[in-house]
């Protein structure tokens, strides 16, 4: 059983392995656990292993074309286990529900399946442009992967076949997607939002007018509060430091709202600095959420109380992605340049980091 107290919520165990001696305090202002041997280039995506296996494994894909896998031990130490290379930057990763395989979507226009037991990979999907998203779908009557691409298609693949079992044309390039059976939501260029139902076979459920005025960056489905575990809506993040909470069938129009985040507190010469929301993830136990941004901060939120639970100190670089482990004890976040300020702000001297934080208590909802 994972014990957060041994995972280093301060106390005597911290520091010996949380941060390496070479890491300055300014690079790890939250004093979180540092993952060994992080990627050499910007960290695009990360995902923890599913609840079906006893250990916690973390995989991360980056712009150095590699996907790395670490085991996260109960004392917070990480052990590098394996690595696979793609033919281009890795845009997304997804675990098979049995924890034996990882799907890797790449700018090389393919998706590969990495069998962790044999450390072999094989191609299971292809598009005519970079593949931006990949998700594993486990339905009662079928299992497949869903891939979204800049070729303006959404494809569903039985990984044993060379051709997709279904192709859906999107109105524009796929920028972000999420799956929580029986629902999928896809955000594209030109601020299109499409919700799909996945029962029996995938089909379009409804198109939603975007509640945000700027480019979609990330989307994450949340479940209802009744405890049925059914998907109820989604959070959508944009490049303009704003998140929208959108219900699929809102009981009242007031249930849908947007909030500002990842913006500078003060103003410089009368202007406020506004940063992109790079990732949104919902806590698997509490239903609260995390956002990470180009401002180098992570924030925890309670959407039902409409309040911020925590705001981190600023890292030296943007936070490009994040993930919770399956039981919500660990929050992982990747610190690396996201090119939001262009090439002139790229500093090759700045190292990339993945940090792990015990987070279960910090994400408990406000008592209401």
Automatic annotation (TrEMBL):
Gene3D superfamilies with a match to the protein in the record: YVTN repeat-like/Quinoprotein amine dehydrogenase
WD repeat residues: 83-124, 124-167
Principal subcellular localization: cytoplasm
Family matches, as InterPro entries: WD40/YVTN_repeat-like_dom_sf, WD40_PAC1, WD40_repeat_CS, WD40_repeat_dom_sf, WD40_rpt
Entry annotated with the keyword Cell cycle: yes
Subcellular compartments: Cytoplasm; Nucleus
GO biological-process terms attached to the record: cell division
CC annotations in GO: cytoplasm; nuclear envelope
Cited SMART domains: WD40
Descriptive protein name: mRNA export factor
Lineage, top ranks: Eukaryota, Metazoa, Ecdysozoa, Arthropoda, Crustacea
């Amino acid at each position: 059983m994972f014990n957060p107290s041994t995972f280093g919520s301060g106390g005597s165990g911290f520091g010996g392995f949380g941060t390496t001696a070479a890491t300055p305090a300014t690079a790890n202002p939250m004093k979180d656990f540092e993952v060994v041997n992080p990627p050499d280039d910007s960290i695009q995506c990360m995902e923890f292993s599913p609840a079906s296996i006893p250990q916690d494994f973390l995989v991360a894909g980056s712009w150095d074309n590699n996907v790395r896998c670490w085991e996260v031990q109960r004392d917070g130490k990480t052990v590098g286990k394996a690595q696979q290379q793609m033919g281009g930057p890795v845009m997304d990763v997804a675990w098979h529900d049995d924890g034996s395989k990882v799907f890797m979507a790449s700018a090389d226009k393919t998706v590969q399946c990495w069998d962790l037991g044999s450390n072999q990979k094989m191609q299971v999907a292809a598009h005519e442009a970079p593949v931006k998203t990949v998700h594993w779908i486990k339905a009662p009557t079928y299992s497949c992967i869903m891939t979204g691409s800049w070729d303006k298609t959404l494809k569903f693949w039985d990984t044993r076949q060379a051709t997709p079992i279904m192709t859906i044309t999107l109105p524009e390039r796929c920028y972000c997607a999420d799956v929580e059976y029986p629902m999928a939501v896809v955000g594209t260029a030109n601020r299109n939002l499409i919700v799909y139902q996945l029962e029996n076979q995938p089909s379009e459920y409804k198109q939603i007018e975007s509640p945000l005025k700027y480019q979609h960056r990330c989307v994450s489905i949340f479940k209802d509060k009744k405890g049925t575990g059914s998907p109820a809506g989604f959070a959508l993040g944009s490049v303009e430091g704003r998140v929208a909470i959108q219900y699929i069938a809102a009981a009242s129009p007031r249930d849908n709202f947007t909030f500002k985040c990842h913006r500078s507190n003060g103003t410089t010469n009368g202007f406020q600095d506004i940063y992109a929301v790079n990732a949104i993830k919902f806590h698997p136990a509490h239903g609260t959420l995390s956002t990470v941004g180009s401002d180098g901060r992570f924030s925890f939120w309670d959407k039902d109380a409409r309040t911020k639970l925590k705001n981190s100190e600023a890292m030296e670089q943007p936070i490009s992605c994040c993930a919770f482990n399956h039981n919500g004890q660990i929050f992982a976040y990747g610190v690396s340049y996201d090119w939001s300020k262009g090439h002139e702000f790229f500093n090759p001297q700045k190292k990339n980091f993945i940090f792990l934080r015990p987070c279960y208590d910090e994400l408990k909802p406000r008592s209401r």
